[in-house]
């Protein structure tokens, strides 16, 4: 089935990178004000979901008139709009999900959005967050990391200590090691080639891959 792309209501720091990441057949879900990011990119979401505290009635009507399905929740609810959007995606059998606009100036929302990657309802689905040059996802078991030599790779445990961690293709390798919860041991590693593998036997880690900036050519020497 097509990939699902969810636009959250955080900051879309690099609209050009977001546009490059999109595919023509993506199924677009906007979490409340994330619909405005869609409009910025000239897109119309298939579904808009939330309590709509970030959209004016005029904006909501324009989305409805453009063919978006509108799913409204009460303001007093137990989930954020992004969690509702993820639950909707999983309910409709999505197994490949890209989230855009998940990070921003509110650290409570940013942390909560990143920790949503560990939500039990997402188990078995491929869920990635993209923010400009930063690519973020959860690792349980074995995962391949793709990028370019020199890309930064950070591994951050999120459910207590991560144990039995083995890496191949990173500058600082681990062999059946541990990443203690709250430690910065896994921060700022780097790819030595175009691919690396990470295996986590116990626990889970959030992986952040930061693409290396292209060198500036023609600078005076």
- Helix count equals 5
Rg on CA atoms, Å? 19 Å
Looking at this structure, what is the CATH superfamily of the largest domain?
Thiamin pyrophosphokinase, catalytic domain
Task: Calculate the mean pLDDT score and round it.
Answer: 94
Q: What CATH architecture of the largest domain would you give?
A: 3-Layer(aba) Sandwich
Global shape: elongated
Question: What does the model show?
Answer:
The protein has 221 residues and is α/β, with parallel strands linked by helices. It folds into two domains: 4-132, 3-Layer(aba) Sandwich (Rossmann fold); 137-210, Thiamin pyrophosphokinase, thiamin-binding domain (Jelly Rolls, Sandwich). The chain is 19% helix and 34% strand. The chain has five helices and twelve strands. The chain has helices spanning 15-21, 34-40, 57-65, 81-91, 107-115; strands spanning 4-7, 27-31, 47-50, 69-72, 96-100, 126-131, 134-146, 152-157, 162-168, 177-179, 189-190, 195-210. The termini are far apart.
């Amino acid at each position: 089935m097509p990939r699902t792309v969810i636009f959250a209501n955080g900051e879309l720091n690099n609209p050009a990178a977001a546009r490059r990441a999109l595919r023509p057949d993506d199924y677009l879900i906007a979490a409340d004000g994330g619909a405005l990011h869609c409009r910025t990119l000239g897109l119309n979401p298939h579904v808009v979901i939330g309590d709509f505290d970030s959209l004016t009635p005029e904006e909501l009507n324009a989305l409805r008139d453009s063919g978006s399905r509108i799913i409204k929740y009460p303001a007093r609810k137990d989930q954020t709009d992004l969690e509702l959007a993820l639950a909707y995606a999983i309910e409709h059998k999505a197994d490949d999900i890209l989230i855009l606009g998940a990070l921003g100036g509110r650290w409570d929302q940013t942390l909560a959005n990143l920790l949503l990657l560990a939500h039990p309802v997402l188990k078995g689905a491929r869920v990635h967050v993209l923010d400009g040059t930063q690519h973020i996802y959860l690792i349980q078991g074995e995962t391949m990391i793709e990028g370019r030599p020199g890309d930064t790779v950070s591994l951050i445990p999120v459910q207590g200590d991560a144990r039995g961690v083995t890496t191949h293709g990173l500058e600082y390798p681990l062999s059946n090691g541990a990443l203690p919860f709250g430690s910065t041991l896994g921060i700022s590693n780097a790819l030595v080639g175009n691919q690396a593998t990470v295996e986590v036997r116990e626990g889970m880690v959030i992986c952040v891959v930061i693409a290396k900036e292209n060198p500036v050519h023609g600078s005076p020497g």
